[in-house]
Amino acid sequence: MTIQWYPGHMTRAKRMIKEELKLVDGLLEVVDARVPESSRNPDLRDLTSKPRLIVLSKTDLADPLQTREWMEYWKSQGEAIVETDLLQGQGLREIRAAVAQTFPNLKRHPRLLVAGIPNVGKSTLINGLTKRRAAGVGARPGVTKGKQWLSAPGMQLLDSPGILWPKFEDQEVAKRLALVASIRDEIFDQVEIVWWLMQFLKEHYPDALPTRYGVIDEEDNALEEIGRRRGCLLRGGIVDFNQAASSVLKDFRTGKLGRITLDLFSRSESR
To answer: How would you class 201 by CB atoms within 10 Å of its CB: exposed for 0-12, middle for 13-18, buried for 19 or more?
Structure first.
Protein backbone atom coordinates (compact mmCIF):
# COMPACT_ATOMS: atom_id res chain seq x y z
CA MET A 1 0.00 0.00 0.00
CA THR A 2 1.25 3.43 -0.97
CA ILE A 3 -0.40 6.45 0.67
CA GLN A 4 -0.41 9.83 -1.05
CA TRP A 5 -2.92 12.63 -0.38
CA TYR A 6 -2.54 16.19 -1.59
CA PRO A 7 -5.92 17.49 -2.81
CA GLY A 8 -6.16 20.68 -4.85
CA HIS A 9 -7.39 22.82 -1.99
CA MET A 10 -4.07 22.25 -0.18
CA THR A 11 -2.17 23.78 -3.10
CA ARG A 12 -4.39 26.86 -2.86
CA ALA A 13 -4.06 26.90 0.93
CA LYS A 14 -0.28 26.82 0.72
CA ARG A 15 -0.30 29.86 -1.57
CA MET A 16 -2.66 31.63 0.81
CA ILE A 17 -0.48 30.86 3.84
CA LYS A 18 2.60 32.12 2.01
CA GLU A 19 0.85 35.46 1.43
CA GLU A 20 -0.57 35.69 4.95
CA LEU A 21 2.86 35.10 6.48
CA LYS A 22 3.80 38.55 5.19
CA LEU A 23 1.11 40.06 7.47
CA VAL A 24 1.95 38.30 10.73
CA ASP A 25 4.70 38.66 13.30
CA GLY A 26 5.12 34.94 13.90
CA LEU A 27 3.28 31.67 14.04
CA LEU A 28 1.92 29.04 16.38
CA GLU A 29 2.82 25.67 14.85
CA VAL A 30 0.47 23.02 16.24
CA VAL A 31 1.97 19.52 16.38
CA ASP A 32 0.32 16.23 17.43
CA ALA A 33 2.23 14.76 20.39
CA ARG A 34 1.58 11.21 19.14
CA VAL A 35 3.49 12.00 15.94
CA PRO A 36 5.61 14.98 16.97
CA GLU A 37 8.11 14.72 14.13
CA SER A 38 5.85 13.31 11.41
CA SER A 39 3.23 16.03 11.97
CA ARG A 40 5.66 18.89 11.29
CA ASN A 41 5.18 19.99 7.70
CA PRO A 42 8.64 20.54 6.14
CA ASP A 43 7.12 23.01 3.65
CA LEU A 44 5.86 25.15 6.53
CA ARG A 45 9.32 25.22 8.08
CA ASP A 46 10.78 26.46 4.79
CA LEU A 47 8.22 29.24 4.20
CA THR A 48 9.37 31.67 6.87
CA SER A 49 12.08 32.49 9.39
CA LYS A 50 9.72 34.50 11.59
CA PRO A 51 9.50 33.49 15.27
CA ARG A 52 7.48 30.37 15.91
CA LEU A 53 6.14 28.64 18.98
CA ILE A 54 5.55 24.90 18.75
CA VAL A 55 2.31 23.95 20.47
CA LEU A 56 2.38 20.26 21.32
CA SER A 57 -1.27 19.14 21.33
CA LYS A 58 -3.06 15.92 22.32
CA THR A 59 -0.48 15.10 24.97
CA ASP A 60 -3.22 13.31 26.93
CA LEU A 61 -3.13 10.63 24.19
CA ALA A 62 0.67 10.41 23.89
CA ASP A 63 3.32 8.52 25.84
CA PRO A 64 4.45 11.01 28.53
CA LEU A 65 8.03 9.70 28.51
CA GLN A 66 8.28 10.22 24.76
CA THR A 67 6.71 13.67 25.07
CA ARG A 68 9.35 14.64 27.62
CA GLU A 69 12.15 13.38 25.33
CA TRP A 70 10.85 15.39 22.37
CA MET A 71 10.35 18.50 24.49
CA GLU A 72 13.92 18.35 25.79
CA TYR A 73 15.31 17.68 22.32
CA TRP A 74 13.53 20.60 20.66
CA LYS A 75 14.49 22.96 23.46
CA SER A 76 18.11 21.87 23.03
CA GLN A 77 17.77 22.88 19.37
CA GLY A 78 16.66 26.38 20.36
CA GLU A 79 12.95 25.80 19.62
CA ALA A 80 10.27 27.47 21.72
CA ILE A 81 7.71 24.82 22.68
CA VAL A 82 4.71 24.48 24.98
CA GLU A 83 3.09 21.20 26.03
CA THR A 84 -0.71 21.35 26.12
CA ASP A 85 -3.84 19.38 26.88
CA LEU A 86 -6.19 21.67 25.01
CA LEU A 87 -9.38 19.79 25.85
CA GLN A 88 -8.65 20.44 29.52
CA GLY A 89 -7.48 24.00 28.90
CA GLN A 90 -3.94 23.20 30.05
CA GLY A 91 -1.04 25.10 28.52
CA LEU A 92 -2.98 28.20 27.43
CA ARG A 93 -1.41 30.39 30.11
CA GLU A 94 2.05 29.19 29.09
CA ILE A 95 1.32 30.00 25.45
CA ARG A 96 0.28 33.57 26.34
CA ALA A 97 3.42 33.99 28.45
CA ALA A 98 5.66 32.67 25.66
CA VAL A 99 4.05 34.99 23.11
CA ALA A 100 4.51 38.00 25.40
CA GLN A 101 8.15 37.07 25.96
CA THR A 102 8.77 36.65 22.22
CA PHE A 103 7.36 40.08 21.28
CA PRO A 104 8.15 42.34 24.26
CA ASN A 105 8.54 45.60 22.32
CA LEU A 106 5.52 45.60 20.02
CA LYS A 107 3.17 48.58 20.48
CA ARG A 108 0.22 46.35 19.60
CA HIS A 109 -0.77 42.76 20.14
CA PRO A 110 1.32 40.39 18.03
CA ARG A 111 -0.35 38.91 14.97
CA LEU A 112 0.14 35.15 14.78
CA LEU A 113 -0.68 32.55 12.17
CA VAL A 114 -2.00 29.29 13.62
CA ALA A 115 -0.67 26.60 11.31
CA GLY A 116 -0.21 22.85 11.06
CA ILE A 117 -1.25 19.74 9.17
CA PRO A 118 -4.89 18.53 9.25
CA ASN A 119 -6.48 17.40 12.50
CA VAL A 120 -3.69 18.36 14.91
CA GLY A 121 -5.92 20.63 17.01
CA LYS A 122 -5.56 24.11 15.51
CA SER A 123 -9.23 24.98 15.95
CA THR A 124 -9.27 23.61 19.50
CA LEU A 125 -6.27 25.83 20.30
CA ILE A 126 -7.98 28.90 18.86
CA ASN A 127 -11.17 28.17 20.77
CA GLY A 128 -9.19 27.89 24.00
CA LEU A 129 -7.18 31.08 23.46
CA THR A 130 -10.21 33.15 22.40
CA LYS A 131 -12.37 31.69 25.20
CA ARG A 132 -15.21 31.09 22.82
CA ARG A 133 -16.26 28.58 20.21
CA ALA A 134 -14.83 30.59 17.36
CA ALA A 135 -13.44 28.06 14.93
CA GLY A 136 -14.98 24.91 13.52
CA VAL A 137 -13.78 21.68 15.11
CA GLY A 138 -14.13 18.27 13.49
CA ALA A 139 -12.69 14.78 13.67
CA ARG A 140 -12.01 14.69 9.95
CA PRO A 141 -9.17 16.52 8.18
CA GLY A 142 -10.22 19.50 6.12
CA VAL A 143 -12.82 21.10 8.43
CA THR A 144 -11.17 24.54 8.33
CA LYS A 145 -10.98 25.80 4.76
CA GLY A 146 -11.01 29.61 4.88
CA LYS A 147 -9.22 32.53 6.48
CA GLN A 148 -10.38 33.70 9.91
CA TRP A 149 -8.90 36.56 12.00
CA LEU A 150 -9.72 36.21 15.69
CA SER A 151 -8.98 38.24 18.82
CA ALA A 152 -7.50 36.60 21.90
CA PRO A 153 -6.03 38.10 25.09
CA GLY A 154 -2.58 39.43 24.21
CA MET A 155 -2.63 38.43 20.54
CA GLN A 156 -4.42 38.44 17.21
CA LEU A 157 -4.80 35.04 15.57
CA LEU A 158 -5.10 34.12 11.92
CA ASP A 159 -6.54 30.68 11.37
CA SER A 160 -5.35 28.61 8.41
CA PRO A 161 -6.39 25.35 6.75
CA GLY A 162 -4.39 22.24 7.48
CA ILE A 163 -1.94 21.39 4.73
CA LEU A 164 0.33 18.44 4.04
CA TRP A 165 3.22 18.31 1.57
CA PRO A 166 2.92 17.10 -2.03
CA LYS A 167 4.55 13.68 -1.68
CA PHE A 168 5.34 11.33 1.19
CA GLU A 169 8.83 10.08 0.45
CA ASP A 170 8.73 8.06 3.68
CA GLN A 171 5.68 5.79 3.75
CA GLU A 172 6.21 5.14 7.46
CA VAL A 173 5.39 8.82 8.01
CA ALA A 174 2.29 8.47 5.85
CA LYS A 175 1.09 5.50 7.92
CA ARG A 176 1.52 7.39 11.18
CA LEU A 177 -0.39 10.37 9.82
CA ALA A 178 -3.15 8.07 8.60
CA LEU A 179 -3.46 6.55 12.06
CA VAL A 180 -3.95 9.95 13.73
CA ALA A 181 -6.54 11.02 11.10
CA SER A 182 -4.42 13.65 9.38
CA ILE A 183 -5.16 11.78 6.14
CA ARG A 184 -8.71 10.93 5.14
CA ASP A 185 -9.70 7.34 5.96
CA GLU A 186 -10.97 6.82 2.42
CA ILE A 187 -7.42 7.20 1.07
CA PHE A 188 -5.94 4.07 2.63
CA ASP A 189 -6.74 0.43 3.43
CA GLN A 190 -7.77 0.41 7.09
CA VAL A 191 -7.10 -3.31 7.52
CA GLU A 192 -3.52 -2.90 6.33
CA ILE A 193 -2.88 0.22 8.41
CA VAL A 194 -4.28 -1.44 11.55
CA TRP A 195 -2.11 -4.50 10.91
CA TRP A 196 0.89 -2.13 10.85
CA LEU A 197 -0.31 -0.53 14.10
CA MET A 198 -0.70 -3.91 15.80
CA GLN A 199 2.84 -4.93 14.86
CA PHE A 200 4.12 -1.60 16.19
CA LEU A 201 2.24 -2.08 19.46
CA LYS A 202 3.49 -5.64 19.83
CA GLU A 203 7.08 -4.37 19.64
CA HIS A 204 6.88 -1.10 21.58
CA TYR A 205 3.70 -1.24 23.71
CA PRO A 206 3.18 -4.99 24.26
CA ASP A 207 0.49 -4.54 26.93
CA ALA A 208 -1.77 -2.32 24.82
CA LEU A 209 -3.72 -4.97 22.91
CA PRO A 210 -4.00 -7.58 25.71
CA THR A 211 -5.18 -4.90 28.17
CA ARG A 212 -7.94 -3.76 25.83
CA TYR A 213 -8.98 -7.03 24.20
CA GLY A 214 -7.68 -9.79 26.48
CA VAL A 215 -5.01 -12.38 25.74
CA ILE A 216 -4.74 -13.01 22.00
CA ASP A 217 -3.60 -16.57 21.32
CA GLU A 218 -2.95 -16.57 17.59
CA GLU A 219 -0.65 -13.70 16.68
CA ASP A 220 -1.05 -14.18 12.92
CA ASN A 221 -4.83 -13.97 13.27
CA ALA A 222 -4.95 -11.28 15.94
CA LEU A 223 -7.29 -8.96 14.04
CA GLU A 224 -9.63 -11.86 13.28
CA GLU A 225 -9.70 -12.81 16.95
CA ILE A 226 -10.37 -9.22 18.02
CA GLY A 227 -13.14 -8.94 15.44
CA ARG A 228 -14.77 -12.11 16.69
CA ARG A 229 -14.62 -10.96 20.30
CA ARG A 230 -16.06 -7.55 19.41
CA GLY A 231 -18.91 -9.02 17.37
CA CYS A 232 -17.65 -7.77 14.00
CA LEU A 233 -19.31 -10.58 12.08
CA LEU A 234 -20.84 -11.09 8.68
CA ARG A 235 -23.52 -13.64 7.82
CA GLY A 236 -22.36 -17.14 8.64
CA GLY A 237 -20.14 -15.99 11.49
CA ILE A 238 -17.36 -14.76 9.20
CA VAL A 239 -15.30 -11.93 10.70
CA ASP A 240 -15.74 -8.56 9.01
CA PHE A 241 -12.11 -7.44 8.90
CA ASN A 242 -13.01 -3.90 7.82
CA GLN A 243 -15.30 -3.45 10.81
CA ALA A 244 -12.73 -5.01 13.14
CA ALA A 245 -10.01 -2.69 11.82
CA SER A 246 -12.28 0.33 12.19
CA SER A 247 -12.92 -0.66 15.82
CA VAL A 248 -9.19 -0.95 16.62
CA LEU A 249 -8.48 2.33 14.82
CA LYS A 250 -11.16 4.12 16.83
CA ASP A 251 -9.78 2.67 20.07
CA PHE A 252 -6.31 3.95 19.20
CA ARG A 253 -7.51 7.43 18.24
CA THR A 254 -9.59 7.83 21.40
CA GLY A 255 -6.84 6.62 23.74
CA LYS A 256 -8.53 3.34 24.70
CA LEU A 257 -5.36 1.45 23.80
CA GLY A 258 -3.37 3.63 26.19
CA ARG A 259 -1.09 6.62 25.76
CA ILE A 260 0.93 5.83 22.65
CA THR A 261 3.49 7.78 20.62
CA LEU A 262 4.18 6.56 17.09
CA ASP A 263 7.26 8.75 16.55
CA LEU A 264 9.74 7.20 18.97
CA PHE A 265 12.46 9.70 19.84
CA SER A 266 15.21 7.06 19.86
CA ARG A 267 14.44 6.39 16.20
CA SER A 268 14.74 10.03 15.14
CA GLU A 269 17.09 11.69 17.62
CA SER A 270 19.85 12.20 15.06
CA ARG A 271 17.68 14.55 12.94
So the answer is: buried
Residue 146: left (phi > 0), alpha (psi -120 to 50), or beta?
beta
What DSSP character marks residue 145?
Answer: -
CATH for 8-159 is 3.40.50.300
Kindly report, residue by residue over 40-99, the tens digit of the pLDDT: 999 888 888 999 999 999 999 999 999 999 999 999 999 999 999 888 888 999 999 999
Any residues with CB less than 8 A from the CB of 48 and at least 6 apart, and which?
21, 27
The CATH number of 189-268, from 3.40.50.1100, 3.40.50.1000, 3.30.420.10, 1.10.1580.10, is 1.10.1580.10
Q: What is the pLDDT of residues 108-150, one digit of tens each?
A: 999 999 999 999 999 899 999 998 755 443 444 443 444 567 9
Q: How many helices and strands in the chain, by DSSP H and E?
A: 11, 6
